[in-house]
Amino acid sequence: MRVIATIDELVGERAGWAGAGTGAVGFVPTMGYLHAGHLSLAERARAENDMVVASIFVNPAQFGPNEDLASYPRDLARDLERLEAAGVDVVFTPTPEQMYPAGFSTYVVPEGTLNARLEAAVRPGHFRGVCTVVLKLFNLVRPARAYFGQKDAQQVAVLRRMVADLNVPVELRVLPTMREADGLAMSSRNSYLGPEDRAAATVLIRALRAGAAAFDANRDGPPDAALAAMRTVVADEPRATLDYADVCDPRTFAPLATLRSPALLAIAARVGPARLIDNVVLDESGDWNMGRVAGEN
Length: 297
Ligand code: AMP
Fold this sequence. Notes:
The protein has helices spanning 7-19, 36-48, 76-85, 96-99, 119-122, 126-141, 153-165, 195-200, 203-217, 224-235; strands at residues 2-4, 25-30, 51-56, 90-92, 145-149, 171-175, 178-179, 240-248, 263-271, 274-282, 288-289, 292-293. It has 297 residues and is of the alpha/beta class.
């Protein structure tokens, strides 16, 4: 596995991939502090491509001024071990100065409902930072396929839109949310949780399960009962504060007036020092995709 920290080196290396007749490149962008969710993306990329590139970059452009950029967890040595074990060929670990040199001034700014509601409303500028860095990484790595997690459902929708709107020649693959045994979605930010907050953090998946049950009981009806079910579970957890609970279209993020498929139940809450997000999806055929527990089939 090669670890590359500069754009010049990456571009030089990429010329070699083409020269060696290397076929499809699969790409897994991350912010590091890797867990089984990230590794599921790397393993799938390994299975589906000739060459696998991962990136580790805590992207300053997607953090707001009062967010956790400075405290975001990092452990490069452990991440590299895990990526090597997953069969990754190249890891790109640029510095902020490499990605945003002096004078940098061109950003990719998504618009419309997708960049107005939920994460976009709570984190203004977040998806501008995400789109800008992901398009730069796509231009540098030039993957045939790129792998993302359903855990960040709005990010997936925003990036699908960007790839379609700007004719970016890459296929996006989205993999299920990986969960701990008690249902908590894996997240690098779970490391912020002390034992009591860690126990309380299952409130997100508990709320989503309650929302899904209320959804099933009210199909073709209004979303009120599903929304109320999610809110009640969070209100009953003293360590948690709800940011939002929502029922929307998974592609456009427009709120659903009537409960039908496809649908996304999305939730964000603060638990102690961590802001956590999670979601479950009702697919076109009417089946719930709740993610899966790491280590289970
Ligand atoms: P991050 O390092 O948080 O930026 O995440 C990098 C990629 O891993 C993104 O595509 C995330 O959606 C994905 N990811 C994060 N957490 C999970 C999870 N629990 N299950 C599956 N994918 C995840």
